[in-house]
Every structure is written in structure tokens, then in C-alpha cells.
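[stage:ingest] chain + small molecule (guanosine-5'-monophosphate)
[stage:ingest] validated
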Amino acid sequence: MDDCVFCKIATHDIKASIVYEDDSVVAFEDINPQLPTHVLVIPKRHYWHIGDDVPEQLIGHIYSIATEVASIKGVDKTGYRLVTNVGEDGRQTVLHFHVHVLGGAQMPIRMGPAD
Ligand code: 5GP
Ligand code: ZN
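[stage:predict] done
[stage:export] C-alpha cells:
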């Protein structure tokens, strides 16, 4: 996809600090980390978001690699959060499906019902 920053990272046309790569996915450090560990896992192929007919096997692989990234970054024991923003209300800013791996400190907001 022309003019997609994550497609260009996937093809190495834009530099990123790569944590993991295989034939179908790449994981790299977020340029504007929100926590000490903040890595993005993306499919190399362009999909607008997780609802864009992404094959189930690829979704599974991306989540599997997200857990692998957590191990690589050393946050697998302390915990982490996986986030996928979708569209305008989800406040997705890069329109190429990605999963955020966030950890290394406690998340500022707890999801779910209030205590
Ligand atoms: P979104 O808001 O779409 O869920 O998340 C997009 C993420 O991509 C943001 O956390 C942002 O910091 C990150 N990002 C945007 N452009 C670049 C870039 O060129 N390189 C890297 N490494 N991260 C980027
Ligand atoms: Zn793309």
C-alpha cells in the first residue's frame, strides 16, 4: 500500500528498531513509547484494521508473536497489555492493522468495571 508507514517499515524502506521478524509479520519499537516496553506487531501485508478480512490464522500468529515479544522484552512474568485500536472511535492513527504490546510498568488505566 503506497503511503502507508507500516508497509514501508515491513519492507525496510523506513527504518525501525525491529524486535522480531518472519515471513508474515514484523515487530518493532513504537516511536513514541507510552510505557517502558511498547512494541507494535504488524502483518507485513496491508490490512486497514483487524476487521479488514484478516485471515484467522494470521490474527492467531500475530497474537502468538505478541506473547513472544513480551518474552523477548522480559515482561512476560510481570504482565503486559495487548491493544488493537480500530477506526475513529478506537482512535486508530495508523491505518494498518497492528497490536500494541505494552508493559514494563503498571498500566495507568485498569480496563473493566470500577472496583
Ligand atoms: P494507533 O494509534 O494507530 O493504534 O497506533 C499507532 C502507533 O504507531 C502509535 O503508538 C505511534 O507512536 C506509532 N508510530 C507512528 N508512526 C510510526 C513510525 O514511523 N515508526 C514507529 N516505530 N512507530 C510509529
Ligand atoms: Zn500498510
